[in-house]
Design goal:
Layout (H helix, E strand, L loop, with lengths): L1 H15 L26 E6 L3 H9 L4 E9 L8 H4 L7 E8 L6 H10 L8 E2 L2 E2 L6 E4 L2 H19 L6 E4 L4 E2 L7 H4 L4 H17 L10
Helix pairs in contact: 2-7, 4-5
Function: Has an important function as a repair enzyme for proteins that have been inactivated by oxidation. Catalyzes the reversible oxidation-reduction of methionine sulfoxide in proteins to methionine.
Enzyme class: oxidoreductase
Protein name: Peptide methionine sulfoxide reductase MsrA
Length: 219
């Protein structure tokens, strides 16, 4: 019985500090992010590096980024949902669409943010979330974007990671916006267990490492 209780407690603990530990009970939330309407000069970049609650918050802290939207990409299943990608069988990864002003922040800088806010050597996950749905992917839509990503990987592999980067470089086929209750999740749920234990510390670590890239009151 004591062993059973220990296993149950451990399972619950893992669930509480997992991106997928969020239940469906809040799917009916009325406070959601409206569909973002891009400005004339706005461009979009797509990145996946673990739980999209964390990734969205990181990119939204960057000067020149107008909005970040959580969603799913990189897989083969049509119309994926949070439940379906949680099985790890859809091929999709939790992905963030980053709307940015290229006159204020370059695609290359966003790629720097992407690699600088994760452990790109981890295959299929970012601690404490593991599975293909949490794998690291740098998406591109043009040859120029692909070249920037591959140049960054080559540089980091040579100077920092000794050839161990596991990030996939994939051409974007389609991005599916995630359910509304995932949007701005960290901002709206600062006291949620996973947010306090994982997401906020990850954001703060990024801010400490790249203070020059952060938004100010004037941005």
């Amino acid at each position: 019985m004591n062993i059973l209780k220990s296993v149950t407690f451990l399972s619950l603990s893992i669930l509480l500090i997992s991106c997928f530990g969020f239940t469906d009970k809040k799917e009916t939330q009325t406070e959601t992010k409206a569909t973002y309407i891009a400005k004339e000069k706005t461009k979009v970049a797509y990145f996946a590096s673990g739980c999209f609650w964390c990734v969205e918050a990181i990119f939204e802290s960057v000067s020149g980024v107008e909005e970040a939207v959580s969603g799913y990409a990189g897989g083969h299943t049509l119309n994926p949902t949070y439940k379906s990608i949680g099985t790890g069988k859809t091929g999709h990864s939790e992905t963030v669409a980053v709307y940015y002003n290229p006159e204020k922040v370059s695609f290359e800088t966003l790629v720097t943010v992407f690699f600088g806010s994760q452990d790109p050597t981890t295959k299929n996950g970012q601690h404490p979330d593991y599975g293909t749905q949490y794998r690291s992917i740098a998406f591109y839509e043009t040859d120029a974007e692909k070249a920037i990503i591959e140049k960054m990987i080559a540089k980091l592999n040579a100077e920092v990671y000794h050839g161990k980067i596991a990030t996939e470089v994939t051409k974007l086929k389609k991005f599916y916006k995630a359910e509304d209750y995932h949007q701005d999740f960290e901002r709206r749920n600062p006291n949620q267990g996973y947010i306090k234990a994982v997401s906020i510390p990850r954001l703060n670590k990024f801010k400490k490492r790249f203070p020059q890239l952060l938004k100010t009151d004037k941005h």
